[in-house]
Amino acid sequence: xxxxxxxxxxxxxxxxxxxxxxxxxxxxxxxxxxxxxxxxxxxxxxxxxxxxxxxxxxxxxxxxxxxxxxxxxxxxxxxxxxxxxxxxxxxxxxxxxxxxxxxxxxxxxxxxxxxxxxxxxxxxxxxxxxxxxxxxxxxxxxxxxxxxxxxxxxxxxxxxxxxxxxxxxxxxxxxxxxxxxxxxxxxxxxxxxxxxxxxxxxxxxxxxxxxxxxxxxxxxxxxxxxxxxxxxxxxxxxxxxxxxxxxxxxxxxxxxxxxxxxxxxxxxxxxxxxxxxxxxxxxxxxxxxxxxxxxxxxxxxxxxxxxxxxxxxxxxxxxxxxxxxxxxxxxxxxxxxxxxxxxxxxxxxxxxxxxxxxxxxxxxxxxxxxxxxxxxxxxxxxxxxxxxxxxxxxxxxxxxxxxxxxxxxxxxxxxxxxxxxxxxxxxxxxxxxxxxxxxxxxxxxxxxxxxxxxxxxxxxxxxxxxxxxxxxxxxxxxxxxxxxxxxxxxxxxxxxxx
Length: 498
Fold this sequence. Notes:
mainly alpha
């Protein structure tokens, strides 16, 4: 069978289509990762004293100021697009705040939401004149960092599948399914370190694997890049240590089989060299923020529920937490995306060497999945995921998805397409409604119609911005516009032949 590589035009069309859909489904949530991005772009500092009290994970350390408890990697990168766009955002904010000052009337900020904490948060932000700034900054970070990164991961998935000799049609469908039929869609809506780690794991693994010659890197480049991906994962979250160890093990395993001890040591040195920069940056951040490079931010956090178990809430793995990661109705992986359960079937097919996925890679993909699940089954904070939905185990999605594609490709076409449609539908419902329960998100879309998260939030606070908006504002015109743009993107200058 002749291998057909995706053209640059096809890759560009896939990228921009995914980017458009991701940006359209932007969520206005300002999460803890945003505050460090704001401080870096506005004050060039790690301290977040002015944001103290806006988020429970921002805490004050005597003599050191206010900081967040999580690692800074994704916030550092998210600060870049905000810093670039700050002059324009500052101008818009100045105009809005000057207009409010001219009106001279005291406005009670209205946010029609049943969750008291969100109402209180909006009141504080509005009274400080930060509401427009926060919204625009979060939108810029999502549109210029998270959305392009997820779109790029879809392009990488297209290349992987096509270089493994799947048909171009099947590879393209797989890329879209990965982007829109899994929680990648849900998590791309705003800044999130767990999704960032998922992308890093995919990029690092593919760089080492190089299926069918993609990407066309030399061994030393592959090891350096994979090390950098692993280091960035650790810089972004301590669960990234699982990615760092996994990619390092995979790199050394490949080197051993290709050249024995000599090649193994050379690859190990290159991998460590790639990881050294991000790890050094993490140590520098911890030293500047907390006074010691050796302890994580969680070490200094005020006591919270379950923090007395193990070390700051991290103890031995628990079967109860393992089950929750997979089956909890609010954030379980196989509840938010039942499609991925097929990955375990695909693994056994790969073990029998009856499919396009090599046995060695299938084993490493499953090892990473189980290792990550076991890691978080030892973390008591796992139970707090219900606040924002599936989050902690998002990094296993690329690994499980490749195994899932093995299963899908072996199913009858009629069954396969039913599964694909259902996966798209569920993922879209979660990305539109964004409730704290998977079934509730689906019910809200089925009973209430199409939604967009940012429009839903804007409608709740319409009196302050657009008084004509109601609670039932329709996103259909925007869906139609997006559809027209996507149609034009794939139609001109010439349609693809798949």
